[in-house]
Write a structure and sequence with these properties.
alpha/beta; Rossmann fold; 7-stranded parallel sheet; 7 strands; 51% helix
Length: 286
């Protein structure tokens, strides 16, 4: 049986340097959970330690780092793990025809392969215990596509497929797995997306260069880049439910766009939904 009180429950979180991961780490720590907050950069680990966390370096794009980070986490917990919150990710904007093999590989190394490696390390620990929770921070772009977000769309679609399959395979194991599907959330996501776009996309050499200028203008804009943007505490609320509900949901919607597009995907034809998604995402302003 799982421990009843948060102070006896260990939670491993990736991507804790800022945004959702940072907020969730603090929120769960305040709630009494034993949080192991991981980050890719050593300076982020030092910051988290200064704030009272047990923190480890874990770079999802590096298989050795994932293995080492998980081993160190289990040493801290005595081999126990109540929950894994897969959160660390980044977005690589760009038209699909401009995405090189290396660009897609880079997107998937962090957003998919690292997550699945960490999940596969956690599952045997949870099976031995007879309980556990795995929470995947997906996106509204994990079930609808938008122009110029193909690499990120593909990574989140992959996570959704793997998670849905795992949910079936873990039935009866005592391990519950949930997807959280946020729309726009306040974070450093835009700043990281700018760097990825400039590194992997030949903007001036692309037929879409005018669109990219619009994308960069949006990403550089101060304040929320999209309507209905919520603070990361909105995700924390869903994470707490996924951790503490006797029967957590398979999916948790966060922000109005997720609810809206979830409804439209169920009710509109593909042609109708394509029209709305193209209008919302292709002008470089949304």
């Amino acid at each position: 049986m799982p421990p009843k009180h948060p102070e006896n429950k260990t939670v491993l979180i990736t991507g804790c340097s800022s945004g959702i991961g940072y907020c969730v780490a603090h929120g769960l720590k305040q709630r009494g959970y034993f949080v192991i907050a991981t980050a890719r950069r050593e300076e982020s680990v030092a910051m988290l330690k200064s704030e009272g966390f047990d923190s480890l370096r874990l770079d999802l794009a590096d298989a050795d780092s994932v293995e080492k980070g998980f081993t160190q986490a289990m040493e801290l917990t005595g081999g126990r793990l109540y929950a894994l919150f897969n959160n660390g990710a980044f977005g690589l904007p760009g038209a699909v025809e401009d995405l090189s093999r290396d660009a897609l590989k880079t997107q998937f190394e962090t957003n998919v392969f690292g997550w699945q490696q960490l999940t596969n390390l956690a599952i045997p620990v949870m099976r031995r215990q007879g309980y556990g929770r795995i929470i995947q921070n997906s996106s509204v772009l994990g079930f609808v596509a938008m122009p110029f977000r193909g690499a990120y769309n593909a990574s989140k679609f992959a996570i959704e497929g793997l998670t849905d399959t795992l949910r079936l395979e873990l039935k009866g194991s005592g391990i519950e797995i949930s997807l959280i599907e946020p729309g726009p959330i306040t974070s450093r996501f835009r700043a990281n997306a700018v760097r990825a776009l400039e590194q992997y996309i030949d903007i001036d050499g692309s037929i879409h260069r005018d669109k990219y200028r619009g994308v960069l203008e949006r990403l550089h804009k101060e304040g929320p880049a999209a309507p209905f943007t919520l603070p990361p505490e909105a995700v924390l609320k869903r994470v707490i439910h996924a951790l503490e509900a006797r029967k957590p949901r398979a999916r948790y919607y966060v922000t109005a766009p997720t609810y809206i597009f979830g409804f439209l995907k169920r009710t509109l034809s593909t042609r109708q939904l394509d029209y709305l998604l193209a209008k919302a995402g292709s002008d470089g302003k949304n």
